[in-house]
Write a structure and sequence with these properties.
By secondary structure, the chain is mainly α. It is built from six helices and no strands. α2 packs antiparallel against α3.
Length: 187
């Protein structure tokens, strides 16, 4: 029962947060919604009993989104679009209470529910992380390696593109400085 309620709640929230990510014009709002959506995706793994994958989702993807978040704050002046609003205190209290209730239900759910069986047979005497490793490095070895190569290529391409933008901005800054010096010399 708890798994069904948690699944539908997480599904609705995840879809809503990813819609905010796609539709938002503000970088900070989009990145916050993306990070929150990734946290809720890890909740799906925890519901299914794949604790290792849930923790990996939290550490790797949410960590990567937070790094992206900090870079977005550095590169874009995203705070200029934000206008401070005073939210009514009862609304904040209600949202905080609902969030606390959802967290309590999330942590109490596995205690009162039946264990969900994974799609792959579990090996006897092996933990969740070892079982994921066995499946990953036997049946899914080639897709795992292809994904690793794709991530490596994307990382190298990102470094090259960032280097080009840095060179371009340095030349623009230098030409602007030269122009200012020429204007001072003309006076």
């Amino acid at each position: 029962m708890y798994e069904v309620v948690a699944f539908y709640l997480f599904s609705a929230l995840t879809i809503g947060l990813f819609l905010i990510t796609v539709m938002s014009k503000n970088v900070l709002y989009a990145m916050t919604a993306l990070a929150s959506g990734m946290v809720l995706i890890s909740g799906f793994f925890f519901i299914l009993g794949a604790d290792f994958l849930g923790v990996v989702q939290l550490i790797v993807y949410v960590g990567a989104v937070m790094a992206l978040y900090s870079f977005a704050m550095m590169f874009f002046d995203a705070t200029r679009d934000i206008k401070e609003k005073n939210t009514p205190a009862p609304l904040i209290f209600l949202l905080g209470g609902v969030s606390a209730l959802v967290l309590v239900l999330m942590f109490a759910g596995p205690i009162h529910s039946e264990a969900i069986q994974a799609l792959y047979p579990m090996h006897e005497g092996v933990g969740n992380a070892q079982d994921v490793g066995i499946v990953l490095f036997t049946k899914y070895l080639v897709p795992f390696e292809v994904a690793a190569v794709m991530l490596l290529v994307a990382m190298i391409a990102g470094i090259i593109l960032a280097g080009r933008k840095m060179e371009q901005s340095l030349t623009e800054d230098q030409s602007a400085d030269d122009e200012i010096l020429q204007q001072k010399d003309a006076k």
